[in-house]
Amino acid sequence: MEKVLEVKNLHVSFKTYGGEVKAVRGVTFDLYKGETLAIVGESGCGKSVSAQSIMRLIPNPPGKIKHGSILFKGMDLTAVKEPQMRNIRGADISMIFQDPMTALNPTISIGEQIIEGVLQHKQVTRQEAKKTALEMLDLVGIPNPVERLKHYPHQFSGGMRQRIVIAMALVCQPEVLIADEPTTALDVTIQAQILDLFKEIQSKTGVSIILITHDLGVVAQVADRVVVMYAGKIVEAGSRREIFYNPQHPYTKGLLNSVPRLDIEETELVPIGGSPPDLFSPPTGCPFTARCAYAMEVCDRKYPFKTRLSQEHHVDCWLQDERAIKMLASIK
Amino acid sequence: MTAYIVKRLIAMLVTLWLIITLTFFLMHSVPGSPFNEERATNETVQKNLEKYYHLDEPLIVQYGLYLKSVITFDFGPSIKKSSQTVNEMLGRGFPVSFELGLVTLIVAVISGITLGIIAALRHNGILDYTAMTIAVLGISIPNFVMATLLIQQVAVNWGILPVATWVSPKHMILPTLALATGPMAIIARLTRSSMLEVLTQDYIRTAKAKGLSPVKIIFKHALRNALLPVVTVLGSLAASILTGTFVIEKIFAIPGMGKYFVESINQRDYPVIMGTTVFYSAILIMMLFLVDIAYGILDPRIKLHKKEGS
Q1: Beta-carbon separation of A102 and B221 below 8 A
Q2: Domain boundaries, chain A
Q3: Domains defined for chain B, CATH in brackets
Q4: Average pLDDT value for residue range B69-82
Q5: Residue B212: which of A99, A116, A169 has the nearest Cβ?
Q6: What number does CATH give the domain A3-92+174-273?
Q7: What pLDDT band is residue A39 in, cutting at 50, 70 and 90?
């Protein structure tokens, strides 16, 4: 399959009064054409920062991409100049943010907010841009788009606003859509509708989606592949099937155990105890050691190697080491 | 919209009536009368004068007479300068004061907003600190001190601009500057803080994610939202400019309304006090009304008319 985006060894840091926060520490992943890649992890694990780095939307200062490259169409996005980056934003790579209630400008009509994106990137007249906007609103399921175009954000419900935000992001037919917790601020029924909308749009336009979420239920519904992040690192990645049915990293297992399920008798949820490490001075070993039930001495000292389990599935964990496997077998 | 305006107009009239009533009774509760002077007047003359101006009537009757004069827009003759009526004084003084006030307001708004935007965009930079230092100075230095300093330095020492009076546009520069510094500083600080807040909003990030240029983001997406609080204070700023004109007019010998206002209070020239007060209040109430209308135009979330059902 064709790679649309390649993120290689990305490091992002924030300078604060307390020191440097290493929010993303060596993240590598690819995005293929027409797929949905989910990035999951708890708050502060660096998933949003990774995504915003792709768009170069990290406020700088204090944020800075320290190492690594982001390849898009043969260009390294970490190196292109700002004006060129502006031509990419919204046209080739678009972004949807978490809260549709605040993502739209309250004093500008939604029509204008969609149209200005088209006018920014395409050589079209205002009338043509308006036509595109209408088609887009129709595509995302806004009833009566001609009338609604003139309305302001406060005249829409949360779900409708998220549809508008999606229309705005897709109006220039980007190749990559980054959705940062697009359903978190919505109630569950609207969530399902929006996720269906993503699938529908993807089948119509072939856009590649990076979906950032902490909700494994959402991942199960739409993702093709899953990347699990913890403390600024990718600890496990694989196809949806591999992650849900054959999780290898204790953190991934912990995440899955803390999701309510209807298909299993056992109803008690098992939370992961403790909290993630301080990213001012991240541990040299595996960052999950302190919370891990299987922690060994080596975990604290050295970060584990990447173990490849299949074409897609790989995990960073010492439990994959031969010696650990042997030892576990002997205990059993 | 019409219903709203009618409602507001009624409320404005009530406000104005309250101001008139309060001023009237306050004014009469102050001891002394227009004819109390160091040089004693003949008692019969004084009696006749009081009779002529209805000052011998009970207060409530005077109040009634006064309300009548307000409704007919005839404030009567001045007591002290009996050759002039209050209407004539207002007619002569107001255009000058209005010119000064309007120019000041325009200068204050434009320069204040510009300074505020620059400060916000260069947050914590040298330009920010410079702009905010100017603003703090502007707020702390009273306009009469500013006026004296300007006259001393620009008009006397350098001799570039005229010292006083109100003849040509050149004469307008110093009084306008002196009067505009305070409001400008307030607007600059307000614009800066509200701009800084708006720039961290999610919709600014959305605009960036669309690939808009910084200029478009600032002027189309940020400024309008940042100006809402500024518009709110414009009404009361207009008030402070109006009252500021009293002193500035005096210092620069500008033939505006301020002179009449201050003199009338000192001399207990009742009709002039009432006339100027009512006039100023009317302008102020009008300003606040205009600000509310402007607010509704700037922010579509504020509806001035009945809900159309959203």
Answers
A1: no
A2: 3-92+174-273, 104-173
A3: 1-310 (1.10.3720.10)
A4: 78
A5: A116
A6: 3.40.50.300
A7: very high
